[in-house]
Amino acid sequence: MIRFEHLMKEYSGRRVVDDLTFQVPQGEIFGLIGPNGAGKSTTILMLVGLIEPTGGRCLINGEDIVTEPIRVKHRIGYMPEDVGFYADLTAARNLDFFAQLYGMKPAERKQRIEELLALVGLDGATQQVGAFSKGMRQRLGLAGALLNDPAVLVLDEPTANLDPPGVADFRRILRDAAAEGRTILISSHILPEVDQICTSVGVLARGRLVAMGTPGDLLQKQEGGTVTLCVETRDPMPDLAVPGVLCVSYDAPRREALVVAERDLGDEIAAFLVGRGVRLLRLAERQPSLESVVLPYYREV
Ligand SMILES: Nc1ncnc2c1ncn2[C@@H]1O[C@H](COP(=O)(O)OP(=O)(O)OP(=O)(O)O)[C@@H](O)[C@H]1O
Fold it and tell me: Is the dihedral angle over the CA atoms 92, 94, 100, 101 positive or is it negative?
């Protein structure tokens, strides 16, 4: 189990993580999401003991990472966004190096490394890691994070470089890891992925936890509240400055937009665009998604 108690971090007097208190129960896959600069990486770095909190604490199975650093770090598997490996060693030799640091015996190391390379689909990879694709490095990162049989897995943007089969493998491995009783915390910007894999989600904005629950809980909160509309136009769109629009994310050189509005503003948006000579291709309400629920938090930055 992971527990944050009044966790706080300041840089030069500026608070970037502000009084975080929540817990992630054993076996949960928790998605930590939020806009750029919200404090996700800082929170993760405190959780894995790479930086110290200014106040409060992070507990792994009840033990404080600051007061029991060695014991607690042995219970954590951490996969940073940019996984660092020795480019001139093979995947197996890289893992063997880290396994030695964990104090694992040669026979145990050999067996564990073979199992893990098969698990992440790298059992046939005999080349040096310098020749790996980004996706292969990410697979190796996951194997590295699982090396010490951790109780808690902390993964920063784990699927960013993976192709669809790689993502499917990751999901399967993480679900199995959670079913084995590991507690998993993932930081990600890929909201549909978080929606698919995470059993609970926390939204950070300006260092504070502004929403938390299962993806289903967060969606329910939206019912009777905001409406999400997909807008597609033939011409580039101006800013959709229509009263009641809460948040817009534009795409495809401003010919597509996802609009979160207080109510169904389809007629008003159509009139707004037609009045500005913008030809409309499609305007439809979208079923609520995790993305539409949390987008307003991204806008508030
Ligand atoms: N070492 C540091 N010194 C000073 N300020 C820092 C330091 N590390 C992070 N910050 C600031 O703390 C804030 C939170 O940064 P953090 O990297 O934790 O955000 P994040 O949610 O992980 O963002 P992103 O999604 O862009 O990775 C930002 O304003 C950042 O500039």
Answer: negative
Q: What is the pLDDT of residues 254-286, one digit of tens each?
A: 999 989 888 889 999 999 999 999 999 999 988
Rounded to an integer, what distance in angstroms lies between the CA atom of residue 274 and that of residue 288?
A: 26
The full set of domains in the chain, from first to last, is 2-213 (3.40.50.300), 220-299 (3.30.70.100)
Which of left, alpha, beta for 199 (phi over 0: left; psi -120 to 50: alpha)?
Answer: alpha
How many angstroms is it from 262 CA to the middle of ligand 1?
A: 31
Residue 301 scores a pLDDT above 70: no
Please calculate the CA angle 247-252-255 and round it to the nearest 5 degrees: 70
**Does position 166 have pLDDT exceeding 80, yes or no?**
yes
**Parallel, antiparallel, or unpaired: how do β-strands 152-156 and 208-213 relate?**
unpaired
Which of 7, 20, 41, 190 for mutating ligand 1's site (highest number of atoms within 8 Å of CB)? 41
Q: Is the ipTM above a cut-off of 0.85? A: yes
> How many CB atoms lie under 10 A from the CB of residue 143?
26
Q: What are the pLDDT digits (tens) for 246-260? A: 888 898 889 999 898
> 76 C-alpha to center of ligand 1: Å?
22
Task: Find the 267 Cα to ligand 1 centroid distance in Å.
Answer: 41
Ligand 1 atom closest to the CA of 39, numbered from 1: 18
